[in-house]
Amino acid sequence: MFFLLFGIRTRDHLVDTRVMTCEICGWTAPSARFARTTKFTLFFVPLFPVAPKKFLLRCGHCMGLRTVQDLPAYV
Question: By CB atoms within 10 Å of each CB, which of 12, 39, 40, 74 scores lowest?
Answer without folding.
Answer: 74
